Amino acid sequence: MRRLRAWFSRLGELFAKQRREQELAAEIESHLHLHIEDNLRAGMSPAQARREAIMKLGGFEQTKEAYRDRGGLPMLETFLEDLRFAARMLRKNAGITAIVVLTLALGVGANTAVFGLVNGLLLQRLPVPAAEQIAALVIQSGDSSLGALGFSYPQFVEFREQTTPICEVFGSATAWRLNFTAEGHSDTLTIGGVSTNYFSALGVKPALGRLVLSGEGEHPGEPAILVLSYTFWQRRFGGDPQVIGKQVRVGVKPATIVGVMEKEFRGQFTVFEMDAYAPLSTVFDQSSASNFWNSRDIHLMLVLGRLKPGVTLAQAQSRFEVISRRLAAQYPVTDKDLSVRVMDERLSRPIPYANNAFIVFSGLFLILGVFVLLLACTNIANILMARASVRQREMAIRAALGGARSRLLRQMLTETLLTALLGGIAGVTLGAGLSHLASSTHLSNIPVRLGFGFDWRVFVYALAAVLFTAVSAGLSPALRATRADVNTVLHQGGHADAGGKARHKVRGDLMAAQVAGSLMLLIVAGLFVRSLSAVEHMDIGFDPNQLLNVRLDPSVNNFSETQAKEFYRSLETKIRAVPGVQSASLASAVPIEYTLGRQSVYVEGRPVPPGQKAPDMLFNCVDAPYFDTLRIRVLLGRAFTNADGETSPRVAIVNETMARHFWPREDPIGKRFSLTSDAGPFVEIVGVARDGKYRVLAEDPQPYFYVPLTQHYTSQRTLQIRSSMPPQSLAPIVQHEIQALDANDPIEEIQTMKESLGGTLGYFIFRVGASLASAMGLLGLLLAVVGVYGVVSYAATQRTQELGIRMALGASPRQILALLLKQGVRLVAAGLLFGLAGAWALTRAMSSMLVGVSPSDPLTYMSVAALLSFITLLACWIPARRAMRVDPMVALRYE
Q1: Among the four residues 144, 507, 514, 781, which has the most C-beta atoms within 10 Å?
Q2: Percent of the chain with pLDDT over 90
Q3: How many CB atoms neighbour CB 437 within 10 A?
């Protein structure tokens, strides 16, 4: 405590330094006058009296310095002096300071934006109490054809009941887009169906009203209730507190708004922001989704668990494995190959599926961000080295006057640190702007949330980047500037660069490293861009151009099956009569969306072995004109016709993969399969359609089949219209025709097929990857060009006298140009060589992220290398050409 009090006392005295110095100076002056008067009385002249008095007070001066050291904090005082001097030097060299700050801002800004995104997606915990106890329960299947799976509702209930001692299991159904009508206005909202204990297990509170109560909403037929998200409440109702108790319509049901979520909670899915939450009974009723409640084959539940205090992930994993084995023995047909993996909730993002590809994706872009920062560091190091060579004479004079090398080194590092802090502030501001720009991203079909704000992790990361830059870029120039021999520098008068060869070699190595790093970034960007191009131009099995999708559900207005069929029949007739419409058709689902159905298939003559389950296949219910509207070729047999009605024999059209899978080297036309059991009833195959993309663009070919809408009724359908005019121009006409048939407007969503393909299952992730990689690549290219230009330009400037002598002795401008270019070409070539090797190693981890292009794509490597070579050689040529035009007489008088 005594030491602490003494430290604070000295810190206080530091701020009273000026007053203390004045008092000390006055005391010394009074002592000096007394000694001068004594010397004058002794007969000395005034000059001699003053000289003797000052010599006599020399010991007191030493005492004064000791007093100063004891009275303050020497290290802090020295640092503040260095900081003030550094600020003056930076202001004096404003141009160089601005370049360094801008360079660092680009490096730190790119890293801050990427890390902020990764932090929000993977590192931040859910904004709930004791979030570290939340674990993801990921169901895995030994059948790889099933892809990602959630829990079926019966499985969810069984695990919830059997794990109560160690974990509270809760979950939600995958997001649904439902029609929402309130105050006479209809639109579509993204809704999550939640279990009865969802909110209580998370520990969240309402901002208004109440949430789902215990035991509420897990039985079909219960009154429908709705909890709005805070954002949707503000956007749709303007934050009206009277919204509680308001009667609205969700899908086909009247519902009551009972609460509004707190502002901080935006759902468990990280990327997707829900508009509202409702009990499972509100989303699934007994009539339309009875299979959800009873079937173990419908995997729609995404499940989390709150571990009890003291329970570890490993302990929970053991418990879930025991239950998984018990259920596999009890339900061998459906649960035989299923197991549950218990993991940290953050590792399961963006949604709790057994898939960590997003972690690899995030890691890759963090690495790319580090590359950008390293390029910025090499640029700054080159600038500081050039600046340090200019300041050698200053450092030599300081050393000659008694300045210790450690003191000089500390002064130069303080300047670098101050510059880095300015660049870091600018970089964090730039990163915040980029993050805000990302947060404005919104897809027409799913609300995507990419802006997460900055927390302490982002600022610590940015600070670490700044300190890394200050040390890595500033230490070497500072050491070299303070290492030069004082006699040599003073003898040369500062006209020569002491240790010039070594210094030029280091700058050349840094230039080659910049070229290599830039090449790696550009190759990664090129691969992502090529992958995006391949996806956008791939054959997806249908023509998405000039198509308008209108999702409808007349059952929201209590239409019966007969009324809905008549509505769709009249609507198709009216739309086909609209000028510019080439064709129109109806389907229960749209490719590359969430609404595709999955059905077990029982092939005639091939009974499913006991203890096994029938294979699941994706399917779609379509009408007769569907294949013409989407331009899907029927390769064998025929398409559906109007004769395939309710009373006609059941028929189906399969795709090529399904035909090959079940009937290899056979004609599939006339073959039959059932959708219910080995005993039938059976549907007959009447055609084979070409393969396409059904769930996601990056999927491998998979079995798929179509059945007629006339034989498989569904209320919710999508009207697809092909037109000769821009499809979005048809939207007002279509809306008018629909309202003429049904004034209550059953439209759930209207968008072009191109907009639909731009969603999260389509081009979105590829465009995000290409955009981020391209931004990183362009930043790397910019930094590399600036670095190459700076090195060659500085080298030409340093060799001005040499060039003057060469020209005076008869060297031609072309020879001078070749001389200067030779060094640049050699360094660029070395950078390209190392960059190609580094890119080949880096892109090995990208194979799972690329579609339609190899990580070793020779076209990308060759084109990027050629582009970078041209630009960097141009950056070498410009200063070299300027140097060859120097007048020899001017060059000889240089410096």
Answers
A1: 514
A2: 31
A3: 12
Give CA–CA dist 264/542, Å, rounded.
42
> Phi/psi at 512 (nearest 5 deg)?
-60, -40
Contact predicate 297/152, CB 8 Å: yes
Decide: residue 642, CB within 10 A, 0-12 exposed, 13-18 middle, 19+ buried.
exposed
Q: Report pLDDT digits (tens) over 710-740.
A: 999 888 899 999 999 999 899 889 988 988 8
Alpha-carbon distances of 818 from 501, 800, 810, rounded to whole Å: 20, 15, 15
CA–CA separation, 799 and 816 (whole Å) = 11
Residue found by looking up tokens 């465009």 in the block: 767
Report the distance separating Cα 158 and Cα 325, nearest Å: 13
Angstrom CA distances, 441 to 232, 370, 447, 451, 629, stand at 16, 25, 8, 9, 31
Do residues 108 and 424 lie in contact, with contact meaning Cβ atoms separated by under 8 Å?
yes
Q: What six digits make up the tokens of 273?
A: 């922001």
Residue 534 identity: A
The CA–CA distances, whole Å, from 162 to 141, 149, 300, 343, 697 equal 21, 21, 20, 18, 39
Pairing outcome for strands 253-261 and 176-182: unpaired
Strand (E) or helix (H) holding 140: strand 134-141
Residue 129 DSSP SS3:
coil
Q: How far apart are CA 292 and CA 284, in angstroms?
A: 7
Residue 884 pLDDT: 73
Contact 459, 428 (CB under 8 A): yes
In the three-class reduction of DSSP (H, G, I as helix; E, B as strand; rest coil), residue 210 is classed as coil
Which tokens is 669 given? 């036309």
pTM, two decimal places: 0.78
Residue 273 has what DSSP assignment? P
- CA dist 668 to 59, 604, 606, 652, 690, Å? 111, 12, 14, 11, 14
Query: 448: alpha, beta or left, given left = phi > 0 and alpha = psi -120 to 50?
Result: beta
How far apart are alpha carbons 796 and 811 in whole angstroms? 16
pLDDT band at 496; cut points 50, 70, 90: very low
CB 780 within 8 A of CB 375: yes
Q: Is 399 left (phi over 0), alpha (psi -120 to 50) or beta?
A: alpha
**CA 459 to CA 115: how far, in whole Å?**
10
Tokens standing for residue 45: 């002249």
Q: Is 172 left (phi over 0), alpha (psi -120 to 50) or beta?
A: beta
Per-residue H/E/C for 402-441: CCCHHHHHHHHHHHHHHHHHHHHHHHHHHHHHHHHHHHCC
- State the Cα–Cα distance between residues 560 and 554, nearest whole angstrom: 9
Give the tokens for residue 884.
Answer: 């060859």
Please tell me the number of Cα atoms within 13 Å of 877 on its side-chain side.
Answer: 7
Nearest to 831 by CA among 577, 615, 521: 521
The closest alpha carbon to 203, from 127, 310, 134, 129, belongs to 129
Higher pLDDT, 705 or 374: 705
Cα separation, 372 vs 521, in Å, equals 8
Q: What is the pLDDT of residues 647-669, one digit of tens each?
A: 899 999 999 999 999 999 899 99
> What sign for the dihedral angle of Cα 512, 518, 522, 525?
positive
Rounded CA-CA distance 700/46 in Å is 103
> What is d(CA 21, CA 317) in angstroms, rounded to the nearest whole number?
70
Q: How far apart are CA 746 and CA 716, in angstroms?
A: 10
Q: Give 164-205 pLDDT, tens digit per residue.
A: 999 999 998 866 777 788 887 777 788 888 999 999 999 999
Tell me, rounded to whole angstroms, the distance of Cα 403 from its chain centroid. Answer: 50
Distance CA 120, CA 117 (A): 5
DSSP lists the bridge partners of residue 704 as: 618
Q: Residue 652: phi, psi to the nearest 5?
A: -155, 155
